[in-house]
Here is the input.
Amino acid sequence: MKPALRHPLLSILAALLLLGGCDSGSSGDGRVGQIRARGELVVLTRNAPTIYYVGQHGLAGPEHDMAVAFGRSLGVKTRFVVLDDIDDILTALAQGKGDIAAAGLADIPQRRKRFLAGPMYQKVRQQVVCRRGGARPKTAADLVGLRLAVAARSSYVRRLQQLKQRLPDLSWETVADVDTEELLVRVWQRKIDCTVADSNIVAVNRRYHPELAVRFDLSEPQELVWYMPTGATGLRHAVQSWLSDYRRSGDLADLFERYYGFINVFDYVDTRKYLRRIHSRLPPFRAMFERAGKRFGLPWTLLAAQAYQESHWNSTATSPTGVRGIMMLTRDTARELGIKDRLHPQQSIVGGAHYLSDMRARLDETIHEPDRTWVALAAYNIGLGHIRDARDLAARLGKDPDSWHDLKEVLPLLSQRRYYRSLNSGYGRGEEAVRYVSRIRNFHDLLVRELHLSPDRSTAAGG
Here is the structure.
């Protein structure tokens, strides 16, 4: 019996139905629909300063913020399942215990055999990290004979295995149940000579342990991605579409600015000195910063960080230009704020907090936090007139005048004649303002971290 002939129109309709079933964002495998039906996106992750952690004001971290934004794009809440290490995360993903693995995961062939990889959101390099005064390898061959340890099931293991093919004497310890951050601490403690870590992890952690030193790059740039279960093609399509919009809107750049924008300001000697002074110089002034912060609605830790940038917590500091005191107020500013004695630490701190609060209040309402605080700090340094010029110039150059990420690219242009001659306030040392804000953000982050690591955790108040 011959099969019945199908009408051409029916064939076309069938093809359209098949195409409709192939996910365009809520898709083919049905996973996006399932996520929406249960009202939550389950994300597998781990604790790390470059991924997910509990910050001063709640949950934070680059991966956390991205995952929450993606969940919001689907109309659902994001629930995080925090596991110990990469091996546990990938095992849980394979067992269907999560929708996405978002944990600073490099895109490597072995993982693509087991999972679907999402689009790249960040590039990093693998770096060999040792301790200052310790091992000084310059090439992979110099690693032979050193106490080298890396996290198990990490992309670093595969890279070392590749190198071992031409360096048969190369050896290393593969450590289970330990993450890269902990291995960096072991290097700092001299328990091992060196480890391997992604460049973003190194940049964050060497500020807390300034004796850590990058010796050389072990790899070319690698892409970080989210992983999804095999077959989750609809979910991957949704991630691709969302990330494209997230990048195009500038939200991804803002995220990297928030978490990494101040990290390049690193000085080994200054950082060690600062960490010591948190315990030796800050205590007599702490209550003053706390009172001023409460009075003017500012984090006291931010005021303390700013004061360190201004005077290194020296209440009698005086500059050649005549600014004085712990907050380095000018005579005119002190007079406007009703400060009678700039060298009196309490008066100076109140004056500085008042002035910063005033700068923040006078900014356009379109500038939102945290950018508002960074722009206010820049105004404290360079003046509100130059900030307004920079915002006008940013708009003229097609940049976002409400974004600190964009403004810190524009501010240095205030010292270039072809730009400043058309601005109301003329020449300005914009590069200095950018550096000023970056250093304060760095000092603030270190201060919060150091206080939370101190023995008396009960007094480690946030802002």
User: Anything to note?
Assistant: Residues 1-27, 453-463 have pLDDT under 50 and may be disordered. DSSP finds 20 helices and 13 strands in the chain.
